[in-house]
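Internal tracking record. Fields below are filled automatically when a chain is submitted to the structure queue. Please do not edit lines marked as system-generated. If the sequence contains nonstandard residues, flag them in the REMARKS field before resubmitting.
Queue: standard
Priority: normal
Entity type: single polypeptide chain
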Amino acid sequence: MNDRNIPLLCDYYEYTMANGYVENGLQDRVVYFDLFFRTVPDKGGFAVLAGLEQLVDYILNLRFSESDIEFLRSKNTFSEKFLEYLRNFRFTGDVWAIPEGTPVFPGEPLVTIRAPIAQAQILETFALLTINHQTLIATKASRIVRAADGRTVLEFGSRRAQGTDAAILGARAAYIAGCGGTACTVSDKWYGVPASGTMAHSWVMMFDSELEAFKRFCELYPDNATLLVDTYDTLNSGIPNAIRAFKEVLIPMGKTRFAIRLDSGDFAFLTKKARKMLDDAGLTECKIVVSNALDEFLIKDLLGQGAIIDSFGVGDNLITSHSDPVLNGVYKLVAVEQDGRIVPRIKISDNVEKITTPHFKKPYRIYDRCGKAVADLICVHDEVIDTSKPLGLFDPKAVWKKKVMKEYTVRELMVKVIENGDLVYDLPPIDEIRDHCRREMDTLWEEVKRFSNPHGYYVDLSQKLWNCRTDLIKGSKQ
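SYSTEM-GENERATED OUTPUT FOLLOWS
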């Protein structure tokens, strides 16, 4: 998967447009596209960016085989000139992106691609699908991890994921956002997401008795045995037999790292009972794991009821982002190069939220004197913020809302990833991305991180960019 090359994973209209560019001699005209999203899933306060590594890999390896070209020829739609163009295809443009693991907000560019129009157009589908999917799952995982309040969350959703990529890359995105690991073994091999697992009910049912099943498992895996205790009767059979197996097999070996897992029932009630039974048996270090149809709201509710849980296994509600399963990312043309100048372009719509922000841009994150992020400011590419001077901010959706920052710091959000078709950015290992995500989360105010009715985080436009956008809107009506 790290060397994937699927050039035909592309909406057909991207090829019809690219063919038209070639036929009209426009294929080498340099343009700028922004990838951004319009609303946060689950009506949350922010999203967590993920998927950049896979996008970069795709761009650098994109080639068209003779089989691909023959297929396109069979459609009787594309010119031989265009097919020859594809035969020699190589991305030669530039890419800027916000690093993975960064909290991001609607309307700001996550990825900007500068390239000849035919190249940039063909990247649209894959750019969207990989950033949309992994950002969606990372965002959902972040909510679930925060609900667990420091307790470990494991991603258990492979069997409910909507396809192989959804399972494998979903586990990657979930780990970036703070999950402790995954049940998906191949995600460990390919991406370094720690894989773990214990037993299913079928293991218990294969033995003549529950106790025998537990003891055999402890003998096989003495260093981290987790016993599933709800196959028959959790309180009257499962937990007592687990206690007995721990005491007869693991304690004599000097092993104290073990756990029980509950996969059904009233978790608030059962975990309290289980904790007392384990403590009364002297197994105070035994952990309690729960799984089954969990999400951030159920986890928060369970902890609010006093449930005694050490870690959570979360499946389909995480890996599918069941409550809001689509990130509405879009890929829009924002500028073209003409006679050595960057000429901004804008899409106008009767729906105000669909009017794009034109120009080649760069977003800054603004921090107050406490180091907390207070707003993002999108500027034209050549603007530099002078932090020695007060910074005026205004809400582009309500321009009368203004604020002047006097003690502040700024950081450019985007980094250059590809230049002239070559990688110029050290793609970080996944544990560094995960650490970056954790640090970035700490810069957000708790009010922005609320699950319901979060505080609105402002994404503002510089005055120069605002004027550009306003002038283009006015000009379109003349």
